[in-house]
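About this split. The held-out portion is used to measure sequence recovery: a designer receives only the structure tokens and must propose an amino acid at every position. Recovery is the fraction of positions where the proposal matches the reference. Here is one held-out target exactly as it appears in the evaluation file.
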């Protein structure tokens, strides 16, 4: 007879195999089955989210990694390392509805690409793609978080799930759930077949698009086996989503639970436009050229007039500035001519007095030209250069020839003058039904 510890271990292993792997990935911040929770913001409309750029503000949150966007392939969900599982989760809920997702699944053992609907009471509807199975898609559902591995279905996909985009569509009413691949119905679940509707998904859902490693070594053994084996993190794995059409079969601002039954009858709809509706239909920010084109003709004329006035003032200011500059230039030219004339007259006077200005020595002091005499600036030597005797009987004439070999100092030293920038494929009309 097995020991009690062996029995407990066997039961734990069985539970890890039977419990839904996806159910283990989901959670709820507030479960209306157990407590009173805030209302869920509604979508209340239909919209195609094209993921060639970031979704409209306030419509999706990004968690557990980075989602990048490409004009050609759409949103890229990439696992580069252990611990990453990039996911887009809608901020809105739909109550009855339809989603069409154009998706190309990621390859890689243990890698799971997924499209998930989930509610606050953990009702759930899934599409899952195992990276180690390139030919099949899996569908699944859960009611109120109840794990039942028998709910899963596996469906062949023409052309495979990893080499091209396919349209994975789900429709949902109070009576039935349907799954389609490229417009072809591949599975139907009637509400009465889900434990007489008790486990039939029937509460407001949000949409999640994401990729995760079911084969992570830290996952339970049953999850790793379900995912196809352990994940090798030596290379990246990418799931692509080109677009997601989401239609809410109900209209209103928000959905709330009136009791703890988790039934669709308990859901109350608050009328009005939802936040998601307003974000989606908000007019995009206009460029400057678009804002200009939107101005009334009278306003444009006023702008033209103001611009003309400013332009006229600038022209006047430029003319005044030019006039002042010319006048200043004339003054400077007159002063320069005056200085030149003074220097000419001075030189002329030196010659008349019989003196050679080039024979005078400059010692750095100022020359008082107006006095007509040499000051400390120009000193006359006491004796001819080159002699050691005292002054001769007759005064030395600096204008006469200097005795060789001495040279008379120049008036200025030459060294002082050195120059210093899609439609949904295989789509189909909305399904009839409501909650």
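Reference sequence for scoring:
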């Amino acid at each position: 007879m097995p020991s009690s510890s062996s029995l407990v271990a066997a039961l734990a292993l069985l539970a890890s195999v039977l419990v839904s792997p996806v159910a283990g990935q989901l959670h709820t911040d507030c479960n209306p089955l157990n407590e009173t929770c805030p209302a869920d913001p509604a979508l209340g409309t239909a919209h195609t989210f094209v993921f060639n750029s970031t979704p409209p503000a306030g419509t999706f949150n990004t968690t557990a990694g980075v989602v990048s966007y490409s004009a050609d392939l759409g949103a890229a969900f990439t696992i580069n390392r252990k611990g990453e599982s990039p996911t887009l989760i809608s901020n809105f809920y739909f109550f009855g509805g339809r989603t069409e997702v154009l998706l190309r699944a990621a390859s890689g053992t243990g890698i799971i690409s997924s499209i998930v609907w989930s509610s606050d009471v953990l009702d759930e509807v899934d599409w899952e793609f195992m990276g180690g199975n390139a030919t099949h898609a899996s569908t699944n559902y859960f009611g109120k978080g109840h794990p039942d591995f028998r709910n899963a279905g596996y469906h062949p996909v023409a052309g495979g799930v990893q080499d091209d985009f396919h349209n994975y569509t789900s429709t949902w009413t109070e009576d039935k759930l349907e799954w389609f691949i490229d417009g072809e119905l591949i599975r139907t679940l009637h509400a009465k077949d889900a434990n007489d509707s008790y486990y039939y998904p029937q509460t407001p859902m949000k949409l999640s698009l994401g990729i995760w490693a079911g084969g992570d070594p830290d996952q339970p053994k049953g999850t790793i086996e379900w995912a196809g084996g352990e994940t090798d993190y030596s290379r990246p794995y990418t799931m692509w989503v080109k677009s997601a059409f989401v239609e809410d079969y109900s209209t209103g601002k928000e959905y709330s639970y009136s009791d703890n039954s988790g039934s669709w009858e308990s859901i109350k709809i608050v009328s009005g436009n939802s936040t998601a509706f307003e974000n989606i239909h908000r007019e995009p920010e206009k460029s400057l050229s678009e804002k200009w084109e939107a101005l009334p003709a009278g306003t444009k004329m006023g702008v033209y007039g103001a611009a003309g006035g400013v332009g006229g003032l600038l022209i006047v200011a430029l003319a005044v500035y030019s006039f002042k500059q010319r006048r200043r230039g004339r003054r400077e030219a007159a002063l320069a001519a005056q200085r030149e004339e003074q220097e000419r007259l001075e030189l002329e006077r030196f010659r008349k007095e019989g003196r050679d200005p080039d024979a005078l020595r400059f010692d750095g002091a100022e020359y008082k030209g107006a006095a007509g005499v040499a000051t400390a600036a120009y000193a006359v030597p006491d004796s001819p250069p080159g002699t050691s005797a005292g002054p001769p009987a007759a005064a030395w004439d600096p204008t006469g020839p200097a005795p060789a070999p001495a040279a008379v100092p120049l008036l200025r030293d030459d060294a002082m003058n050195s120059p210093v920038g899609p439609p949904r494929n295989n789509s189909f009309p909305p399904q009839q039904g409501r909650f």
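Annotator remark: The two ends are 53 Å apart (CA to CA).
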